[in-house]
């Protein structure tokens, strides 16, 4: 073993200069520090602290740019490319993006991270010593989590989904709370790495939280009222729906329950914007 392994930081000395950079050595093996990877602080007479990775030709190379993650350390990294046949590539701060294999991603492509999403990752090598991104395990996420308290109940939170299950999604909030979103508390399943915003609906004894992505009832009523009002506007101020319309008709047109529809329509009537007559609703 030479000790020169991709995904690690090494302190090496300059062995010799080349037309395209410098070869660094640990006394047993040389590695290229390309001219494009040299920072202003470079002094060929001093030992060089570098990060080791494979370049685009698969050769072990060095960079003076030290990423936030390496083998054994974790951080949030941004997805910059998605390739269905391979997985997703993340930017760790160096010139080469790192692949998170599709084998480590959800079975459904729609739940894969999109460009701009972020994953909590470290680095790993495969049996061929190739460098890959590795998603944090549940134990790692629990180790960095902090407990919420009962006074956090009903607060708004935002966080990123890091684990997807059939019954719901786990997120780590900006406060580092572990949150669980039950499938009943969301309109659609978030992608892995997607940022979501919700509110705390329960604080567990261990300090983890339950989160709802659904709007509070008064917020939902505002949105539902707006949907109904805009629909009536598009029809010249009238519609063939009222508070006695069939639930399936309301759901088909407005994608809301009859109870939500009645609350929203009632709000518009209370505000003096709408009235009902013989199965229809009209602008006043």
TrEMBL record:
In this protein, which residues make up the domain named Conserved virulence factor B second S1?
A: 74-133
Domain Conserved virulence factor B third S1: start-end pairs: 142-213
Please state every residue range assigned to the domain named Conserved virulence factor B first S1: 7-64
Q: Which InterPro entries match?
A: CvfB_fam (IPR014464), CvfB_S1_2nd (IPR048588), CvfB_S1_3rd (IPR048587), CvfB_S1_st (IPR039566), CvfB_WH (IPR040764), NA-bd_OB-fold (IPR012340), WH-like_DNA-bd_sf (IPR036388)
Q: Where is the Conserved virulence factor B-like winged helix domain?
A: 227-280
Q: Name one Pfam family in it.
A: S1_2
Which PANTHER family would you find in this protein's record?
A: CONSERVED VIRULENCE FACTOR B
Family of this protein: Belongs to the CvfB family.
Full protein name: S1 motif domain-containing protein
